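Q: Two folds, back to back.
A: First:
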Amino acid sequence: MAITGPFEGEAKTLTGAGATFPAALYSKYFNEYNKLTKVEVNYQSIGSGGGIKAISDQTADFGATDSPMTDAQLKEAKGGEILHIPMALGAVVATYNIPGLETAKLKFTGETLAAIFLGNITKWNDPKIAADNAGVKLPAEDIVSVHRSDGSGTSFVFTDYLSAVSPEWKTKVGASTTVNWPGGVGGKGNEGVAGEVKQTPFSIGYVELIYAVQNK
């Protein structure tokens, strides 16, 4: 990639909006880009759905989404042709808050995660969670599931995975940036889900890896 500074008279500020998933990485990208080009990039991490709307309505110079725009969305977008450019790879992980847990890490099979978010598993000491974590003393507390309340590429990644490992999830919920969650509490953005889990004892959610690390 070749990077050059703006020509005389060109705007020296770019506006972007969208996915919260890569926001921390984008902050570093745009800081380095500014050092090289003197172009300031203002990025609002409002979720993939917001990014698609912003670029489609031409209220931003670029949008970021973790799931590609559909043919219908591309057709409805204003202005010229929209190009998809891969920017980064990342991981979506389960994050939880269990006060007094003796081990720092719990393990969950895909089937167990699907059952939790379907509402089929409601207690932390459920036999399926216990089977995934042999020897760990789990509390007999109700599970509070936390999901995204906004249009989210992170949700698409998570629900697409659950659809692949759980036929029941695929049939009842499916994979999308916005789904009808069987229950639980909503949070806006990866930041919102991470914050909700951090302040809610015995909760579990899903976020991009860096948000789980920052909020441990």
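A: Second:
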Amino acid sequence: MPAPDVVHTVPTSGELTIDAPRAAVWRAAIELDELADDGGYALVGQPRSGLGAKSVRLGPPVGPHGFRTVMYSEVTALQEPHWITSEVLTSTWEHVETLLLLDIDPGRTRARVTGAWRRPAPAGTDFSELQQSLDLLAAQYLERIAAAVRGS
């Protein structure tokens, strides 16, 4: 009899210094998320932007099994010197990410994505390639934010 699945947690991260004030970086990140929203649903009674902003959206069917992803986004903190948002994606797995924006110098912002991907799988499953891919996606997300700030 095969061993039961265990929940594996794969940490993810990315970091980039962006030559722009934190407010401009934040605005670019919000605009990117809104463009990607494609008809997401605002939660009734919750603001669409700023502290406490929450939204839910359903992704298209993907992969050979047609799994759809549900993404929940919430702005969890707006405090000096950083702003924090969290996103939770879930289907047959869960991926939680946090975007942290830190003032490091006048006109410069350190953007950091940290998160964890969780999924049941047999004990001993190697997720090193997945971790590299998720870290690359985090880096690409930060590069898209930087490009949006530059207007390119």
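Q: And?
A: The longest helix spans residues 128-150.
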